[in-house]
Amino acid sequence: MVDERDMSQEREWFYRERAEIVATNLQKRKMNAQYVSSREKALPIILDMIPEGVKVVRGDSITLDQIEIIPELRKRHQNKYIDPFEINPDGSWLHEREERLNMMRETFTCDVFITSTNAITLDGKLVNIDGLGNRVAAMVFGPKKVIVVAGANKIVQDVEEALKRIRGVAAPVNAMRHFLKHQLVEFADLPCVKTGKCIDCNHDSRICNYTVIIEGAMIRQKGRINVVLIGEELGI
Predict the structure, then answer these.
(1) Quick one: DSSP state of residue 126?
(2) What are the residue ranges spanned by the domains of the chain?
């Protein structure tokens, strides 16, 4: 009997078709890309992309937490792993501010930087907005290899839609996450936290300060950026 409540097949088809278009266009822009249908299938693929003995730094990413790559990296004891975003049981940052900043700076000399992206256009552009800039800066230059993990829900038509998605959805939700989960009380006063929408503020704690669009790579950096698209709704 047909179950109209179950849309998993249709959703899987939709995500796969769009992700394969994106992957093809990322390759044209000299970035490696592949699609997998689930986080379970993605996990061993990502681990295989991280050689034994290399230094790995992570960016702030809900997607990475959802696929549980961090516990697996720690469990296999093969890499020097640096996590500026490690938290205490109550959600507060484990490391003090200056230590966290120093850990972020290690990103620029690491072997592998693993992160997510705010949006990916159908024609293969990675679109991101940062508050501090550490994530987008490392994606552009520094680490020898960048692994970008993203759910297919982050695929958008073009850069205009990407920026609308980030400012209209990702940034407000992320700001509220930091307020609720990480005890960053200064975020409570952000207009997007108060109203749920972006007003392009000039608040002291504004998290939309650095907008970066990665359109490709020079031939000498071909394959430095590696994108793993997952056929699920992941991240913010």
Answers:
(1) E
(2) 8-230
